[in-house]
Design goal:
With about 140 residues, the chain is an alpha/beta fold. It has 4 helices and 5 strands, in the order E-H-E-H-E-H-E-H-E. It has helices at about 15-25, 40-55, 85-95, 120-125, and strands at about 5, 30, 70-75, 100-105, 135. The longest helix is centred in the middle third of the chain and has 14 residues, at about 40-55.
Length: about 140
């Protein structure tokens, strides 16, 4: 099964989790990047909150070549306001997930209380992704 590990990371925590998963799965790493510079974590949370509230659609500047060749997609992202960053939503709409196994990993630090698991089934349904999309791998980073 050919695996793509697509992740968005600001501080390097999600990148480290993606690299760890790659070492276990032998999947291909792919960093999702946006045109917007989110800067520090505090600035990113503020910008991310505004994007979510305004339903803003940030521009994704990286694109997967031969996306159709992957059987399994693992998404990694920080949790912002209990959900995934809008950048992840845009990436998901740009690609055809038909027939693919899709899972999510969302590294959290101890103080994070929310999990993306409850909102992912709605996200999957809206994107016409086959369930069980919402299999969530929770990775605690210390």
């Amino acid at each position: 099964m050919k695996t793509l590990i697509a992740y968005f990371s600001l501080s390097g925590v999600t990148k480290a989790a993606a690299e760890r998963i790659q070492s276990l799965t032998d999947g291909d790493l792919f960093e999702i990047k946006g045109k917007k510079n989110y800067g520090s974590y505090a600035k990113a949370i503020a910008i991310g909150g505004k994007e979510i509230a305004a339903r803003e659609l940030p521009e994704v500047i990286t694109h997967v070549e031969n996306f159709a060749s992957y059987d399994r997609i693992l998404f990694g992202f920080p949790v912002w306001y209990g959900t995934c960053p809008r950048l992840i939503r845009i990436f998901a709409t740009e690609n055809d997930f038909s027939g693919k196994e899709v899972s999510v990993f969302a590294p959290v630090v101890r103080q994070a209380r929310k999990s993306p698991g409850k909102r992912l089934p709605r996200f999957a349904k809206a994107r016409k992704l086959a369930l069980p999309f919402a299999s969530v791998i929770r990775v605690t980073m210390r």
